[in-house]
Specification:
The chain has 243 residues and is an alpha/beta fold. It has a single domain (10-242), classed as 3-Layer(aba) Sandwich (Rossmann fold). It is built from eight helices and eight strands, in the order βββαβαβαβααβααβα. It has helices at 54-65, 90-107, 121-127, 149-152, 157-169, 188-201, 204-209, 228-242, and strands at residues 10-12, 18-24, 36-41, 68-73, 112-118, 136-142, 175-180, 214-219. β1 and β2 (18-24) form a beta hairpin. The longest helix is centred in the middle third of the chain and has 18 residues, at 90-107.
Length: 243
């Protein structure tokens, strides 16, 4: 079956929201008969975040090499997407769920969904639930904005932490947390304490049967914006996790 899916530049979701998006096709050497979808959420739009962010663009090649259809999109109110950005990221979380379902149905037969959030995009990504079996769901959170989360969510940080803990606790979840030790918005001590707490919450049964249930990667020299050797380390960590 041909896995090629061509999308218009503007997708209209069932709710009426219009979403500007870009889809990269899987490379020709991807495994035949599989359907894999990666959906990438960008940094905070109020600071210029968009689907054209260099870190997300850099993910196109390694993810397509793994056989993923790679979808980058502009969240509500950004570029050609309709609506207005919220102050809490809750609405963006609902938008993401609708977008994933819509594109997965268009593609058909999806067996693997990777939800990738970068910076503020981690917030909406972490709200997305694990999809029903037999779909394998993976969450990849890059530079989670931990120390500024309350400010970015209108002081709803506790709700986001609770949702994240619920997700990590599930034995059928798969999550990768990647952060740099030179992040400008979250100190490395905060990241390490936070990630250790999440690792304690991970289901013992899941970590015994699947070492990749929750993986934490600290990249030495990595800033919030990534680049150079740190960016290569980031891409390698993501590719290794999703392989």
């Amino acid at each position: 079956m041909d896995s090629t899916l061509y999308l218009p530049d503007i997708l209209q979701l069932p709710s009426g929201l219009k979403v500007e998006a870009h889809l990269t096709q899987p490379q020709h050497n991807s495994i035949k008969g599989t359907r894999k979808l990666a959906v990438c959420s960008h940094p905070w739009s109020r600071l210029g975040g968009s689907m054209h962010d260099p870190v997300l663009v850099a993910l196109d090649e390694p993810l397509s090499r793994l056989g993923y259809h790679v979808l980058r999109f502009n969240s509500r109110g950004v570029g050609g997407s309709s609506g207005w950005a919220s102050w809490t990221a809750f609405q963006e979380g609902k938008d993401l769920e609708e977008l994933v379902q819509h594109v997965a149905e268009m593609l058909g037969g999806v067996q693997d969904v990777a939800l990738i959030g970068y910076s503020n995009g981690c917030l909406s990504t972490s709200l997305h639930p694990v999809l029903a079996s037999p779909i394998r769901t993976s969450h990849v959170l890059i530079s989670y904005p931990l120390d500024v989360r309350g400010w970015l969510t209108l002081f709803n940080g506790r709700q986001f932490q609770s949702r994240l803990e619920e997700l990590v606790w599930r034995p059928d979840s798969r999550m990768l947390l990647v952060f740099g030790d030179r992040d400008e918005f979250t100190g490395v001590a905060s990241y390490e304490k936070w990630s250790a707490t999440l690792q304690e919450l991970a289901s013992p049964d899941a970590t015994t049967s699947d070492a990749s249930h929750l993986k934490v990667v600290r990249v030495d020299g990595g800033s919030h914006f990534w680049g150079g050797r740190a960016l290569r380390s980031l891409l390698a960590a993501i590719e290794g996790f999703l392989r």
